[in-house]
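Bug #77: duplicate submission created two jobs. Keeping one. Sequence:
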Amino acid sequence: MKKLFKLVLNTIPRPLLIRLSYVARPIIAFSLRGNKFTDPIDGKSFKSMLPYGYETQRNNVLSPSTLSLERHRLLWLYLNEETDFFTAPQKVLHFAPEQAFYKLFRNQKNLDYTTTDLFSPLADVKADICDLPFEDNQYDVILCNHVLEHIPDDTKAMQELYRVLKPGGMAILQIPQDLNREVTFADDTITDQKERAKIFGQYDHVRIYGRDYFTKLRSIGFTVIEEDYTHKISPDLVAKYCLAKGEVIPVCFK
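Kept job's structure:
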């Protein structure tokens, strides 16, 4: 079952995968029900999570019910426990909306919720992150997670995110990050897709961000909190929720 699900996730085009997942998820979640691990997003528990990955497979990370990964569950915990995201009126812009969040956020009555992406079938507005069709200072919250590593001109993308965020607003800009690297690595001369996947994690990633990611965000104008939220959660819950210990959430303010 796990091997089959991994094959499906990594080979089926995303629009079709989204449609199929609504049928497959309940069946898979039912087959893995248990009490060892819990997805905090929907509160459902399982005897194991599913594997996920491209070149390197991570075991026990993908929720059978919400299809959330470690980063999604960590972000949900942070938003739920440390912010007023789910209670105060918020105008929200969500890039490349994740299935784990889409319906949940769409149904929140306190959120004026807009999704955007160039290709996602879940996007309300088809838009280039480097040339956004939104006025300045529009959004209280921006969620842009695991997007910037795909963007060749991430400086321009960051400037656009800063532009459309309201003064005092919050942007959460998660990326895959190697905290052991001081400096971000990119090499456009590597063109073979298999080689790029091996080096960058996915063939369509254009860089591996290092610790200087936070410095770059600050150079754009953001005030950045490097939120190591897993160290504010008990080790038992980190394990139960299948989080990546030490993952840092870049919480940015204008």
